Amino acid sequence: MGGFRLISGDREKRYIVEANSAGVCVIDYDSDDRPDLYFVNGGHLESFRQGSPSRVRHALFRNVGERRFEEVTEAAGAGGNGYWGMGCSVTDYDSDGLPDLYVTSYGPNQLLRNQGDGTFADATEHAGVSDPRWSTGSAWSDVDLDGDLDLFVANYIELDPANLPEPGSPAYGSMGGSGLGCKYMGLPVMCGPRGLKGAGDSFFVNQGDGTFEQSSRTSGLDDAEGYFGLGALFVNLRRGRPARPVRGQRLDAQPLLQELGQRDVRGTRASFGPGLQRPRS
Fold it and tell me: Which of 45, 142, 156, 246 could potentially form a cystine with 9 if both were Cys, beta carbons 3.0 to 4.6 Å apart?
């Protein structure tokens, strides 16, 4: 299959962003009935501190049959935008029958539209679905039942790349009592997520013309309280009840289902399964 090397900061892993990357998507991008693989990559700490793109690239491997793959990243235009990748989701947002890719990152997210000729085009700006925050998971569902897939993006924490909290730093925010700080059993450890401020989420409503409307606040899905989101999916737990987005978090297993405001979402085109999240303490 060729080589793919995941880059996620330095070997020492002193900062929380270095411990969080990256995802894989299975996508039949060339519609030959063979599942292809898309690997999301992380980034270099130096570029991250500067808030600029790096030369780290994601990778697309085409399934050529007989359990073999070939890398087609550059030919397909699927290398990404250079920002620290976190995850990806496969969708057909424009209902043309071709699978598209949405890549979450620390930095602007990216929507890659399948051109149908073995290549992708960056449709992020035209569609209006970028998010400059630390995005982790994304999920698609026809929330307003108009026949088009809408997008929910889970965000993790607010983190200033130019001012990263050092391991062993004194307590701040909601992290423990005086003198505790970023330590475990007296040893300095990387800071976060507790003690850092959670980032709000994003919800984009598909307009049916290749563009989206930012509806996070009006739908009640902006996550004003700032939970730590690490994953996203839609689930319809009981037939006849509203479907809800569920965000995943790696802390204690306490389910959190968010209501969809005033939207009637009975019946969706996508349902995925359970998720867990614990509020920040």
Answer: 45
The predicted pLDDT at position 180 comes to 59
Could you give the CA distance from residue 21 to residue 201 in angstroms, rounded to a whole number? 19
Looking at residues 14-43, what average pLDDT do you find? 94
250, pLDDT greater than 80: no
Q: Is the peptide bond before 154 cis (omega within 30 degrees of 0)?
A: no
Residues recorded for the chain: 281
- Upper half-sphere CA count for residue 124 (Cβ side, 13 Å): 17
Pairing mode of beta strands 135-141, 150-155 = antiparallel
Report pLDDT digits (tens) over 183-192. Answer: 888 888 888 8
pLDDT (0 to 100) of residue 267: 32
Task: Quote the DSSP letter at residue 227.
Answer: -
Query: Whose CA is closest to 262, among 205, 215, 218?
Result: 218
Yes or no: say if 217 and 124 are a contact pair by the CB < 8 Å rule. no
In the prediction, which pLDDT does 177 show? Answer: 44
Q: What is the largest CA-CA distance in the chain?
A: 60
* Cis peptide leading into residue 193 (ω within 30°): yes
